[in-house]
Design brief:
Layout: H1 2-7, E1 17-20, H2 34-51, H3 54-59, E2 61-64, H4 73-77, H5 96-101
Parallel strand pairs: 1-2
């Protein structure tokens, strides 16, 4: 419900970035499994396709923010609907370079 309510505030798809972080992950250090994150990102993209347009759904960047770090970034980045990351505390650590380079 929250995702569909917030997703109603969109503009032109190529200029929109949606960041998703599970509520239970905020400040906990817990990360969603790649499968759970992918499922939610796909649901957001499907909602956009059905309620806005397939073109907007394809061009919106949907990024994951939920305790991304150098160890889990490759598995998350391998998911087809995860377009990048919103990085918190890991951006202050040397492993941030691994996160930046994980989708090369």
């Amino acid at each position: 419900a929250v995702v569909s309510t917030q997703s109603g505030h969109y503009g032109r798809g190529s200029k929109v970035v949606i960041a998703y972080e599970p509520v239970w992950a905020i400040g906990t250090g817990e990360v969603a499994t790649p499968e759970i994150a992918q499922e939610t990102h796909l649901n957001i993209r499907s909602w956009l396709s059905e309620n806005v347009s397939p073109e907007v759904a394809a061009s919106v960047r949907i990024i994951y923010g939920g305790s991304v770090n150098g160890k889990n970034c490759k598995d998350l980045a391998s998911q087809p609907d995860i377009d990048g990351f919103l990085v918190g505390g890991a951006s202050l650590k040397p492993e941030f370079v691994d996160i930046i380079n994980c989708n090369c």
